[in-house]
Amino acid sequence: MTSARSSGPALAVVGATGAVGTVLLQMLSLRADVWGEIRLIASARSAGRMLAVRAEETEVFALTEDAFDGFGVGDVALFLTPADVSARWAPVVAARGTVVVDQSDAFREDPEVPLVVPEINAHAARMRPRGIVAAPDTVTAAMIASLGALHAEYGLAELAVSTYQAASAAGRAGTETLRRQLSLVAGTSLGEQPGDVRAAVGEDTGPFAAPLALNVVPWSGELREDGWSSHELAVRAQTRRILQLDRLPVAVTCVQVPVLTGNSLTVRARFENVVDAVHAREILDTAPGVVLVDDPAAGEFPTPADAAGTDPAWVGRVRASLDDPHSLEFFVCADNLRKGAALNATQIAELITGEFA
Ligand SMILES: NC(=O)c1ccc[n+]([C@@H]2O[C@H](COP(=O)([O-])OP(=O)(O)OC[C@H]3O[C@@H](n4cnc5c(N)ncnc54)[C@H](OP(=O)(O)O)[C@@H]3O)[C@@H](O)[C@H]2O)c1
Asked: What is the 15 CA–ligand 1 centroid distance (Å)?
Protein backbone atom coordinates (compact mmCIF):
# COMPACT_ATOMS: atom_id res chain seq x y z
CA MET A 1 0.00 0.00 0.00
CA THR A 2 1.33 3.46 -0.93
CA SER A 3 0.23 6.89 0.31
CA ALA A 4 -1.85 8.22 -2.61
CA ARG A 5 -3.88 11.33 -3.48
CA SER A 6 -5.99 11.59 -6.62
CA SER A 7 -3.73 14.14 -8.32
CA GLY A 8 -0.22 15.60 -8.22
CA PRO A 9 3.19 14.24 -9.18
CA ALA A 10 4.50 11.12 -7.50
CA LEU A 11 7.35 11.24 -4.98
CA ALA A 12 9.62 8.32 -4.17
CA VAL A 13 11.52 8.51 -0.88
CA VAL A 14 14.48 6.15 -1.19
CA GLY A 15 16.09 5.65 2.22
CA ALA A 16 12.77 6.31 3.98
CA THR A 17 13.81 4.31 7.06
CA GLY A 18 17.05 6.21 7.80
CA ALA A 19 17.82 9.19 10.04
CA VAL A 20 17.12 11.73 7.27
CA GLY A 21 14.21 9.70 5.87
CA THR A 22 12.46 9.64 9.25
CA VAL A 23 12.59 13.43 9.52
CA LEU A 24 11.55 13.81 5.90
CA LEU A 25 8.41 11.72 6.39
CA GLN A 26 7.40 13.90 9.36
CA MET A 27 8.08 16.98 7.25
CA LEU A 28 5.92 15.77 4.34
CA SER A 29 2.93 15.65 6.65
CA LEU A 30 3.42 19.27 7.72
CA ARG A 31 4.26 20.98 4.40
CA ALA A 32 1.93 22.00 1.57
CA ASP A 33 0.68 18.75 0.10
CA VAL A 34 1.92 18.92 -3.49
CA TRP A 35 2.37 15.20 -4.05
CA GLY A 36 0.02 12.61 -5.47
CA GLU A 37 1.42 9.21 -4.55
CA ILE A 38 4.28 8.95 -2.04
CA ARG A 39 6.20 5.69 -2.37
CA LEU A 40 8.59 4.57 0.36
CA ILE A 41 11.70 2.59 -0.55
CA ALA A 42 14.67 1.27 1.45
CA SER A 43 16.90 -1.81 1.47
CA ALA A 44 15.52 -5.35 1.27
CA ARG A 45 16.00 -5.48 5.08
CA SER A 46 13.11 -3.03 5.49
CA ALA A 47 10.74 -4.38 2.82
CA GLY A 48 7.24 -4.78 4.21
CA ARG A 49 7.72 -2.40 7.14
CA MET A 50 4.88 0.08 7.61
CA LEU A 51 5.70 3.77 8.23
CA ALA A 52 3.34 6.69 8.79
CA VAL A 53 3.28 9.37 6.11
CA ARG A 54 0.51 11.97 5.79
CA ALA A 55 -1.17 10.07 8.67
CA GLU A 56 -1.43 6.88 6.58
CA GLU A 57 0.38 3.62 7.31
CA THR A 58 2.49 3.11 4.18
CA GLU A 59 4.45 0.05 3.08
CA VAL A 60 8.21 0.18 2.46
CA PHE A 61 9.39 -1.47 -0.77
CA ALA A 62 12.84 -2.90 -1.45
CA LEU A 63 14.99 -0.91 -3.88
CA THR A 64 14.56 -2.62 -7.26
CA GLU A 65 13.58 -1.36 -10.73
CA ASP A 66 10.03 -2.59 -10.09
CA ALA A 67 9.78 -0.32 -7.07
CA PHE A 68 9.54 2.62 -9.52
CA ASP A 69 6.74 1.16 -11.67
CA GLY A 70 4.52 3.99 -12.86
CA PHE A 71 7.17 6.68 -12.25
CA GLY A 72 8.05 8.89 -15.21
CA VAL A 73 8.44 12.50 -16.39
CA GLY A 74 7.20 15.04 -13.84
CA ASP A 75 7.77 12.74 -10.86
CA VAL A 76 10.58 13.12 -8.33
CA ALA A 77 12.72 10.61 -6.39
CA LEU A 78 14.57 11.70 -3.27
CA PHE A 79 17.64 9.56 -2.57
CA LEU A 80 18.52 9.59 1.14
CA THR A 81 20.87 6.64 0.85
CA PRO A 82 24.60 5.89 1.20
CA ALA A 83 26.66 7.25 -1.70
CA ASP A 84 27.31 3.85 -3.30
CA VAL A 85 23.56 3.15 -3.43
CA SER A 86 22.84 6.58 -4.94
CA ALA A 87 25.65 6.18 -7.47
CA ARG A 88 24.23 2.84 -8.63
CA TRP A 89 20.50 3.67 -8.64
CA ALA A 90 20.04 7.43 -9.27
CA PRO A 91 20.96 7.12 -13.00
CA VAL A 92 18.60 4.14 -13.36
CA VAL A 93 15.69 6.18 -12.00
CA ALA A 94 16.68 9.35 -13.91
CA ALA A 95 16.60 7.32 -17.14
CA ARG A 96 12.80 7.05 -16.67
CA GLY A 97 12.52 10.87 -16.85
CA THR A 98 11.96 11.07 -13.08
CA VAL A 99 14.15 13.79 -11.56
CA VAL A 100 16.42 12.52 -8.78
CA VAL A 101 17.38 14.72 -5.82
CA ASP A 102 20.35 13.08 -4.14
CA GLN A 103 21.42 13.80 -0.58
CA SER A 104 24.65 11.77 -0.64
CA ASP A 105 28.10 12.84 -1.83
CA ALA A 106 27.90 10.67 -4.96
CA PHE A 107 27.30 13.55 -7.41
CA ARG A 108 28.27 16.74 -5.55
CA GLU A 109 31.38 17.27 -7.63
CA ASP A 110 29.90 16.16 -10.97
CA PRO A 111 29.82 19.23 -13.27
CA GLU A 112 26.69 17.82 -14.97
CA VAL A 113 24.80 17.66 -11.67
CA PRO A 114 23.81 21.00 -10.12
CA LEU A 115 24.50 21.43 -6.40
CA VAL A 116 21.57 23.37 -5.00
CA VAL A 117 20.54 25.30 -1.91
CA PRO A 118 17.26 26.98 -2.92
CA GLU A 119 17.87 30.19 -0.91
CA ILE A 120 21.09 30.78 -2.88
CA ASN A 121 20.98 29.15 -6.33
CA ALA A 122 17.47 27.84 -7.03
CA HIS A 123 17.98 28.65 -10.74
CA ALA A 124 20.77 26.02 -10.93
CA ALA A 125 18.25 23.19 -10.41
CA ARG A 126 16.82 23.82 -13.90
CA MET A 127 20.08 22.83 -15.64
CA ARG A 128 20.38 19.09 -14.98
CA PRO A 129 21.63 17.20 -18.02
CA ARG A 130 21.80 13.93 -16.09
CA GLY A 131 18.33 14.39 -14.57
CA ILE A 132 19.95 14.49 -11.13
CA VAL A 133 20.23 17.36 -8.63
CA ALA A 134 22.59 17.11 -5.66
CA ALA A 135 22.18 18.67 -2.23
CA PRO A 136 25.20 19.73 -0.16
CA ASP A 137 26.49 18.19 3.04
CA THR A 138 25.22 19.33 6.45
CA VAL A 139 28.08 21.72 7.20
CA THR A 140 27.88 23.60 3.90
CA ALA A 141 24.08 23.71 4.08
CA ALA A 142 24.21 25.19 7.60
CA MET A 143 26.41 28.17 6.72
CA ILE A 144 25.65 28.89 3.08
CA ALA A 145 22.50 31.03 3.49
CA SER A 146 24.24 33.45 5.87
CA LEU A 147 27.46 33.46 3.85
CA GLY A 148 25.57 34.01 0.59
CA ALA A 149 23.69 37.00 2.02
CA LEU A 150 26.91 38.59 3.32
CA HIS A 151 28.74 37.79 0.09
CA ALA A 152 26.08 39.66 -1.92
CA GLU A 153 26.78 42.80 0.12
CA TYR A 154 30.52 42.68 0.81
CA GLY A 155 32.09 40.17 -1.63
CA LEU A 156 33.49 37.09 0.11
CA ALA A 157 37.30 36.89 -0.18
CA GLU A 158 38.38 34.19 2.29
CA LEU A 159 36.82 31.73 4.71
CA ALA A 160 37.93 29.81 7.80
CA VAL A 161 35.50 27.42 9.44
CA SER A 162 35.59 25.00 12.38
CA THR A 163 32.72 22.57 12.84
CA TYR A 164 31.11 21.01 15.89
CA GLN A 165 29.25 18.11 14.26
CA ALA A 166 26.39 16.15 15.77
CA ALA A 167 26.36 12.36 16.01
CA SER A 168 23.20 12.08 13.87
CA ALA A 169 25.11 13.64 10.96
CA ALA A 170 26.57 10.12 10.73
CA GLY A 171 23.06 8.62 10.39
CA ARG A 172 21.33 6.10 12.63
CA ALA A 173 24.68 4.43 13.35
CA GLY A 174 26.02 7.73 14.73
CA THR A 175 23.05 8.32 17.01
CA GLU A 176 23.05 4.73 18.27
CA THR A 177 26.81 4.84 18.97
CA LEU A 178 26.62 8.07 20.99
CA ARG A 179 23.57 6.88 22.99
CA ARG A 180 25.33 3.58 23.80
CA GLN A 181 28.54 5.32 24.84
CA LEU A 182 26.68 7.88 26.98
CA SER A 183 24.92 5.07 28.84
CA LEU A 184 28.32 3.52 29.61
CA VAL A 185 29.91 6.69 30.98
CA ALA A 186 26.88 8.31 32.69
CA GLY A 187 27.21 8.68 36.47
CA THR A 188 30.88 7.69 36.51
CA SER A 189 34.02 9.73 37.09
CA LEU A 190 35.31 8.68 33.69
CA GLY A 191 37.02 11.35 31.62
CA GLU A 192 39.53 12.33 34.29
CA GLN A 193 42.28 9.82 33.56
CA PRO A 194 44.02 9.05 30.25
CA GLY A 195 42.40 6.11 28.50
CA ASP A 196 39.53 5.60 30.94
CA VAL A 197 36.80 6.64 28.47
CA ARG A 198 38.35 4.42 25.78
CA ALA A 199 38.41 1.49 28.20
CA ALA A 200 34.76 2.01 29.15
CA VAL A 201 33.31 2.33 25.65
CA GLY A 202 35.42 -0.46 24.14
CA GLU A 203 36.92 -0.92 20.71
CA ASP A 204 33.74 -0.28 18.73
CA THR A 205 33.57 3.48 18.15
CA GLY A 206 30.92 3.15 15.42
CA PRO A 207 31.28 5.67 12.59
CA PHE A 208 33.61 7.88 14.67
CA ALA A 209 37.40 7.85 14.76
CA ALA A 210 37.52 7.81 18.61
CA PRO A 211 35.08 7.60 21.55
CA LEU A 212 32.56 10.45 21.29
CA ALA A 213 31.01 10.46 24.77
CA LEU A 214 32.84 12.94 27.07
CA ASN A 215 35.12 13.72 24.16
CA VAL A 216 35.60 15.71 20.96
CA VAL A 217 37.05 14.08 17.85
CA PRO A 218 38.86 16.27 15.32
CA TRP A 219 38.15 13.95 12.42
CA SER A 220 35.35 13.35 9.90
CA GLY A 221 35.73 11.52 6.59
CA GLU A 222 38.68 9.74 5.01
CA LEU A 223 42.35 10.73 4.95
CA ARG A 224 43.40 12.78 1.94
CA GLU A 225 46.70 14.41 0.93
CA ASP A 226 48.66 16.49 3.44
CA GLY A 227 46.49 15.50 6.41
CA TRP A 228 43.20 16.99 5.18
CA SER A 229 40.04 14.91 5.58
CA SER A 230 37.68 14.19 2.67
CA HIS A 231 34.91 16.01 4.54
CA GLU A 232 37.02 19.16 4.97
CA LEU A 233 37.90 19.18 1.28
CA ALA A 234 34.26 18.54 0.37
CA VAL A 235 33.02 21.54 2.38
CA ARG A 236 35.61 23.69 0.61
CA ALA A 237 34.64 22.41 -2.85
CA GLN A 238 30.89 22.73 -2.25
CA THR A 239 31.13 26.26 -0.81
CA ARG A 240 33.14 27.37 -3.84
CA ARG A 241 30.68 25.70 -6.19
CA ILE A 242 27.45 27.06 -4.71
CA LEU A 243 28.76 30.60 -4.37
CA GLN A 244 30.46 30.39 -7.79
CA LEU A 245 33.79 31.46 -6.30
CA ASP A 246 36.13 28.91 -7.87
CA ARG A 247 39.28 30.23 -6.23
CA LEU A 248 37.92 31.18 -2.81
CA PRO A 249 40.55 30.37 -0.16
CA VAL A 250 38.78 28.08 2.35
CA ALA A 251 40.21 26.41 5.45
CA VAL A 252 37.97 23.91 7.27
CA THR A 253 38.55 21.86 10.42
CA CYS A 254 35.84 19.26 11.03
CA VAL A 255 35.25 18.21 14.63
CA GLN A 256 32.74 15.66 15.91
CA VAL A 257 31.15 16.57 19.29
CA PRO A 258 28.85 14.58 21.64
CA VAL A 259 25.65 16.33 20.50
CA LEU A 260 22.84 14.18 19.11
CA THR A 261 21.33 16.63 16.60
CA GLY A 262 22.40 20.10 15.45
CA ASN A 263 25.65 21.01 13.73
CA SER A 264 27.46 24.16 14.86
CA LEU A 265 30.20 26.16 13.16
CA THR A 266 32.50 29.01 13.95
CA VAL A 267 32.97 31.10 10.83
CA ARG A 268 35.62 33.70 10.06
CA ALA A 269 34.79 35.40 6.77
CA ARG A 270 37.03 37.96 5.11
CA PHE A 271 35.44 40.25 2.52
CA GLU A 272 36.66 42.46 -0.32
CA ASN A 273 34.94 45.45 1.31
CA VAL A 274 35.16 46.79 4.84
CA VAL A 275 32.49 45.16 7.03
CA ASP A 276 30.24 46.88 9.49
CA ALA A 277 28.97 44.44 12.16
CA VAL A 278 25.74 46.40 12.76
CA HIS A 279 24.85 46.34 9.06
CA ALA A 280 25.96 42.69 8.79
CA ARG A 281 23.47 41.87 11.56
CA GLU A 282 20.72 43.67 9.62
CA ILE A 283 21.57 41.61 6.53
CA LEU A 284 21.51 38.37 8.48
CA ASP A 285 18.27 39.34 10.19
CA THR A 286 16.44 39.43 6.84
CA ALA A 287 18.32 36.69 4.97
CA PRO A 288 16.02 33.85 3.81
CA GLY A 289 16.52 30.67 5.85
CA VAL A 290 18.43 32.50 8.61
CA VAL A 291 17.37 33.52 12.13
CA LEU A 292 19.57 35.99 14.00
CA VAL A 293 19.89 35.29 17.74
CA ASP A 294 22.55 37.66 18.94
CA ASP A 295 22.20 39.25 22.35
CA PRO A 296 24.98 37.86 24.54
CA ALA A 297 24.20 40.43 27.28
CA ALA A 298 20.84 38.67 27.66
CA GLY A 299 22.47 35.23 27.30
CA GLU A 300 21.01 34.82 23.81
CA PHE A 301 23.05 33.02 21.18
CA PRO A 302 22.43 29.94 19.04
CA THR A 303 23.00 26.47 20.49
CA PRO A 304 22.37 23.12 18.80
CA ALA A 305 19.90 22.21 21.55
CA ASP A 306 17.75 25.17 20.45
CA ALA A 307 18.27 24.67 16.71
CA ALA A 308 17.39 20.94 16.75
CA GLY A 309 13.90 20.34 15.37
CA THR A 310 13.78 23.74 13.60
CA ASP A 311 14.17 24.62 9.93
CA PRO A 312 16.43 27.72 9.71
CA ALA A 313 20.11 28.23 10.35
CA TRP A 314 20.52 30.17 13.59
CA VAL A 315 23.29 32.78 13.55
CA GLY A 316 24.77 34.74 16.45
CA ARG A 317 27.98 36.01 18.09
CA VAL A 318 28.41 38.34 15.11
CA ARG A 319 31.57 40.37 15.73
CA ALA A 320 33.81 42.60 13.66
CA SER A 321 37.35 41.29 13.71
CA LEU A 322 39.57 43.03 16.25
CA ASP A 323 42.47 43.18 13.83
CA ASP A 324 41.04 43.32 10.32
CA PRO A 325 38.24 45.70 9.22
CA HIS A 326 37.41 43.36 6.33
CA SER A 327 36.64 40.33 8.54
CA LEU A 328 33.64 39.13 10.48
CA GLU A 329 33.37 36.32 13.03
CA PHE A 330 30.11 34.50 13.73
CA PHE A 331 28.58 31.27 15.03
CA VAL A 332 25.98 29.14 13.22
CA CYS A 333 23.78 26.24 14.38
CA ALA A 334 21.39 24.23 12.21
CA ASP A 335 19.53 20.95 12.51
CA ASN A 336 21.68 18.65 10.35
CA LEU A 337 18.71 16.39 9.59
CA ARG A 338 16.53 19.32 8.44
CA LYS A 339 18.29 22.22 6.67
CA GLY A 340 21.30 19.98 6.33
CA ALA A 341 19.28 17.26 4.63
CA ALA A 342 15.52 16.59 4.67
CA LEU A 343 14.39 20.22 4.37
CA ASN A 344 16.84 21.14 1.62
CA ALA A 345 15.92 18.00 -0.34
CA THR A 346 12.20 18.75 0.08
CA GLN A 347 12.66 22.36 -1.02
CA ILE A 348 14.52 21.22 -4.15
CA ALA A 349 11.84 18.62 -4.92
CA GLU A 350 9.14 21.30 -4.59
CA LEU A 351 11.10 23.63 -6.88
CA ILE A 352 11.32 20.92 -9.52
CA THR A 353 7.71 19.92 -9.32
CA GLY A 354 6.77 23.61 -9.68
CA GLU A 355 8.38 23.52 -13.16
CA PHE A 356 5.87 20.91 -14.30
CA ALA A 357 2.82 22.57 -12.70
N1 LIG B 1 22.35 12.37 8.78
C2 LIG B 1 22.56 13.60 8.30
O3 LIG B 1 22.55 14.60 9.04
C4 LIG B 1 22.80 13.79 6.82
C5 LIG B 1 22.83 15.08 6.34
C6 LIG B 1 23.10 15.32 4.98
C7 LIG B 1 23.29 14.25 4.14
N8 LIG B 1 23.24 13.00 4.64
C9 LIG B 1 23.41 11.92 3.66
O10 LIG B 1 22.10 11.41 3.41
C11 LIG B 1 22.17 9.99 3.19
C12 LIG B 1 21.31 9.28 4.23
O13 LIG B 1 21.83 9.57 5.50
P14 LIG B 1 21.17 9.03 6.86
O15 LIG B 1 21.88 9.76 7.93
O16 LIG B 1 19.69 9.05 6.81
O17 LIG B 1 21.67 7.49 6.82
P18 LIG B 1 21.08 6.23 7.60
O19 LIG B 1 20.40 6.65 8.84
O20 LIG B 1 22.19 5.26 7.70
O21 LIG B 1 19.95 5.65 6.58
C22 LIG B 1 20.32 5.10 5.34
C23 LIG B 1 19.08 4.78 4.52
O24 LIG B 1 19.50 4.20 3.29
C25 LIG B 1 18.90 2.90 3.15
N26 LIG B 1 19.82 1.97 2.50
C27 LIG B 1 21.04 1.57 2.93
N28 LIG B 1 21.56 0.66 2.07
C29 LIG B 1 20.63 0.49 1.10
C30 LIG B 1 20.56 -0.31 -0.07
N31 LIG B 1 21.57 -1.16 -0.42
N32 LIG B 1 19.45 -0.23 -0.86
C33 LIG B 1 18.44 0.58 -0.53
N34 LIG B 1 18.44 1.38 0.57
C35 LIG B 1 19.53 1.33 1.37
C36 LIG B 1 18.62 2.45 4.56
O37 LIG B 1 17.62 1.47 4.52
P38 LIG B 1 17.52 0.30 5.64
O39 LIG B 1 16.89 0.93 6.85
O40 LIG B 1 16.64 -0.71 5.00
O41 LIG B 1 18.92 -0.18 5.91
C42 LIG B 1 18.15 3.77 5.18
O43 LIG B 1 16.82 4.03 4.82
C44 LIG B 1 23.67 9.63 3.25
O45 LIG B 1 24.22 9.68 1.98
C46 LIG B 1 24.24 10.76 4.12
O47 LIG B 1 25.61 10.97 3.89
C48 LIG B 1 22.99 12.73 5.94
From this structure: 5
